[in-house]
Every structure is written in structure tokens, then in C-alpha cells.
Amino acid sequence: MTDSPPPRPVAVAWTGTLPWAVPVAIAGLGLSSDSPAWRAAAAAGMLLAAAAAAVWQVFGRYRRDRELAELAEHLRRGTSSPLPLLPPHEPEPDLRDAVRSVARRARRTDATVVELAEDRDRLFAALEGMSEGVLAVDGAERLLLVNRSATALLRLPLGELKGRRVWEVVRRSAVTDACEAVLGGAGRYEAEFEVGSATLALRADPLPGIASAKGAAGAVLQVRDVTDLRRLESMRRDFVSNVSHELKTPIAAISALAETLLDGPLEGPPIARRFLKDIENHADRLHDLVVDVIRLARVESGRDVFDVRRVPVGPAVEEALRGLRAAAVKAGVQLSSVPPPEAAHVRADADALITILDNLLTNALRHTPAGGRATVEWFPDQVDDRPVIRLRVIDTGEGIPPEHLNRVFQRFHRVDPARSREKGGTGLGLAIVKQMVAVFDGAVAVESEPGRGATFTVTLPAA
């Protein structure tokens, strides 16, 4: 019996498709293609290959269906998923391209959503930072938006206001009337109303959008605090009225005196000289008024350029006293100064400091009877740990009633208008003092009692 040769090793070649591996493996066994064993092995291999291919196809279908289901779920939620897509060797390129297209669209949608969210956040931040109040309502008068300033200006309740009816939250008839007018198709609506001591200006406009048959789709309301603006307008009207009155009085007097002189003959040169002296006095009053008006306007508008530097107080006081010495002698009022032991300096403009002292001393002379005194004193002090110099002008005049103390620095305010005009005051001196002191980061105050004189205190930064 001849020994059979040892079996050769089986060589299995994988070409990427399972059925081709079977014939190659069988050929490696050395069997004849006509033998029953070869046919049985081939049949078994083909069955095994078919089973493996079926399993592979079922697995691929399952994986593809799972990915498609995941994609559909993310599309339903409006989010994107890092889909692995289909591997390059999948036999369905149309499906693969569709999945990739949907994934790209999902990524673009995500980017758009993020951009819109950032734009919304920026818009809300801008609205919250506005000093004006902003409210928006829909066609049913439900609040869509209320910013922080609107809550403060209208004194609205805290908490979530969005979705509530405007008339439930805002208890101001002007606001509800504005909503009704705009939503009813009336167009822009404007009004002013009071909230406590504040004056608010309201403007309502139709909200952009598709209008309904009954009117606008909504309304946007803007609320501004115009208290200071209205106060300034009132001050301007008063200022113009007072200037007109102050100009009218001396002009009328000059005109009457001139007509009298022209109509002559007069009884003699002394009377004519007296009339001419009155004309000169009224002309001087007009000149002083115009100068004070111009000076006040320049200080308030910031057009005056001050040379702010280290200024010694003593020489400025002496200069102001020297300029008023003759007027004090004529009025019978004694002028004096009380300097500190050491020289004091302030940060201010030298000419402006002299003007401040001149106006305060002139005011003291006008309101101090003959035999009285007007004294200037100054000394170092501290305000909130900051070194300052306090200047005081003290007189022994008739004093100021309590109800006038808070108004003496207003333009054209006079405690006794007839007497002030008789003495030649313009009513602007103390207002100029207040404005100039403010330029140098200082303050001015007054203390007085009727019949016991007045004390004006100017506080300026020490230098």
C-alpha cells in the first residue's frame, strides 16, 4: 500500500467578496473537480458564502435603517447629529448623497440658529441699555417686550410681564389710550403725562407686520423722561421774560427823560443836569445787564476759557476790595478782610475768582444799610478727606427770609425787587457766582436770618 502524500496547506485568498474564496480554498485541498468530495465541498462553500452574504446584507440594512432613523429624529427635533454617513463601499450612492445633503443642511441650519440667537441677544442688550423705555404689544394688547427703563419710568411691577395684557400691568391712562389708538388704525400717537414728580413723553407707532382688518398688527411705545427738558424750557421762557422786563424799564426811563429834555424849556441847568444824570444811571444799568447776560451765557455754554492754576486767595480778595472801596464809602458800609495765619491757594482762574468775590461783595453792599459791615474771611478745611479753601462774605444787612434761601442763586430772583432795581442790581450776580464756582468743582451756599445779615460761603479745591 502506497502512502498518500501529506496534505498541502490550504491557501485562502480574500478578494473582497466571500464566494470567490471557496473555489480557491477547495483547489488548495488537491481534489479533482470530478470527485464527489469536490462537488460536496463546493456546494457547502457556496451555501456558506450565500449565508455570509445574506448576514452581511441584513447587517448593512439594519445599520443604514438605524442611521436614517437617527437622522429623522434629529430633523424632527431641529438638531443635527454627527452622522457617520454611509461608508464609501456601500452600493447605494443616491442614498449616501441624500444623507450627506441632509447633514450639510442641518449644519447650516444650526449655524443660522446660532447667528439668530446672537442677534437676539445683542438686540435685547441694546434695549436693556437704553435710557428710554420701550414696550411692544401685539394686536390683542398683550405685552411682547418691556425693557428695564420702561419698568423704572412707569413703575411697573417686578416679575414676568410678557404675555400679560397691557392694561393689567400699566396703570397709566395715557399708555392704554395710546395702545387703543394705534391698534385701532390711528397711526402715530404722542402724549405727555406725569408719574410722581417726573414728566414723561410717550410716542406710540404701529408695529411692523401684517395688519388685521381692525387695525395694526401691534404697537411699539417709547417713553422718555423729559422733566429736565421741560424745566429748562420753563427757565428759558422766564429768562427771556425777565430780560425783556429788565431792559424795558431803563429804556422807557431814558426815553421819557430824553423827551422831557427835548420838549424844554426847563427851569434851569440844574434840572437838566439831574435829568442827564438819570439818563446816565439808566444807561449804566443797561450796560451792566447786558454784560452780566453775556457773561452768564458764556459760562453756562462753556465758551469761556479759564486758566485754571494755583491762585493765591489773598491778592484776589484785596483786588476785589480795592475795586469796591469807593462804592462802600458812598454807601457808608465798612469793608474788611480776615486772612488766615498762612497763605492759602485754590485751583481756579484768577480773574474768575475776583469776579466771584466782586459779585458777592456788591450784593452785600446793596443789602447792608449805612453803618454796617461787609467782611471777607477765608481758611483751609476738609471735605471728604479732600483739602479745600472756604471763602466767606459776611454782611450785617437786612438778611434773607427762609422762603427765599433756596432761590437766591436763580436768575433775576430778588427778595425785594423794587429796592434791588433802585440800587441798580441786575439780578444775575449770584447766578454768575454759582455757575463760575461749579466750573472749578466748587460749591456755594448761603445762611441767613431776617434782620441779622447773611453769610455766603464759597468752597474751592485747595492747591
From TrEMBL:
Alphabetized GO MF terms: phosphoprotein phosphatase activity; phosphorelay sensor kinase activity
Cellular component GO terms held in the UniProt record: plasma membrane
UniProt superkingdom: Bacteria
Segments crossing the lipid bilayer: 12-31, 37-59
Record-linked Pfam families: HATPase_c, HisKA, PAS_8
This enzyme's EC code(s): 2.7.13.3
Catalytic activity: ATP + protein L-histidine = ADP + protein N-phospho-L-histidine
Record domain Histidine kinase: where: 242-463
Record SUPFAM superfamilies: ATPase domain of HSP90 chaperone/DNA topoisomerase II/histidine kinase (SSF55874), Homodimeric domain of signal transducing histidine kinase (SSF47384), PYP-like sensor domain (PAS domain) (SSF55785)
GO biological-process terms attached to the record: cellular response to phosphate starvation
Gene3D superfamilies, per the entry: 1.10.287.130, Histidine kinase-like ATPase, C-terminal domain, PAS domain
UniProt entry tagged with the keyword DNA-binding: no
Protein keywords: Kinase, Membrane, Phosphoprotein, Transferase, Transmembrane, Transmembrane helix, Two-component regulatory system
The name this protein goes by in its record: histidine kinase
Organism: Alienimonas californiensis
This protein's encoding gene: phoR
